[in-house]
């Protein structure tokens, strides 16, 4: 049985092996391999927690989520984003800030209850699309729960933790149910006024 290295180690390894002062997002995603979708979702999920960015991030999350549903190997980004040179030193500083948090989380999250990767990818993509749609509403702070659930799903997906992924998908159902109840209550309230 293959031992899956933690994401924190993979990120450090990619930056340690980077040649030159610049690297592109496309080369970094290529090096991440099957983890690339998880990293993109994790970063966008964290950005979605910022109130002023939640709607834009909700739209951006749908792009890789649809690609997951189509079982693409890695997210394909527009060329002007994917080929833009990024300073390796700046990426290293960013990863140095993120890695301690990942290491702390990796103590609790580990590969268990493995699932078929391709079918899991499609299910996760579909759930992310639905959660991203719920972040587009104008209700203040309604983006927080879906964003937190997306972060949880992304981390479970990254580390192939089927147990955590099951919990995260349950939390996604709860988040979607709350959104449906809120919308339904609003519709009933508007009809009662008329």
UniProtKB/TrEMBL annotation:
Keywords: Membrane, Transmembrane, Transmembrane helix. The chain crosses the membrane at residues 37-63, 124-157, 163-190. Signal peptide: none annotated. This is Exopolysaccharide biosynthesis protein. The lineage of its organism: Bacteria, Pseudomonadati, Pseudomonadota, Alphaproteobacteria, Hyphomicrobiales.
């Amino acid at each position: 049985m293959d031992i899956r290295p933690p994401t924190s180690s993979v990120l450090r390894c990619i930056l340690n092996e980077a040649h030159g002062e610049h690297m592109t997002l496309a080369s970094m995603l290529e090096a991440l391999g099957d983890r690339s979708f998880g990293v993109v979702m994790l970063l966008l999920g964290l950005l979605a927690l910022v109130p002023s960015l939640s709607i834009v991030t909700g739209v951006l999350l749908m792009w890789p989520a649809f690609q997951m549903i189509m079982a693409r190997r890695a997210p394909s980004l527009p060329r002007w984003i994917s080929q833009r040179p990024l300073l390796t030193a700046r990426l290293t500083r960013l990863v140095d800030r993120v890695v301690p948090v990942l290491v702390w989380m990796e103590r609790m999250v580990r590969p268990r209850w493995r699932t078929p990767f391709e079918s899991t990818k499609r299910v996760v993509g579909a759930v992310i699309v639905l959660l991203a749609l719920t972040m587009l509403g104008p209700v203040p702070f309604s983006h927080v729960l879906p964003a937190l659930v997306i972060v949880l799903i992304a981390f479970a997906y990254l580390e192939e933790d089927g147990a955590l992924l099951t919990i995260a998908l349950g939390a996604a159902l709860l988040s979607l149910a709350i959104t449906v109840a809120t919308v339904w209550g609003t519709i009933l309230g508007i009809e009662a006024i008329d």
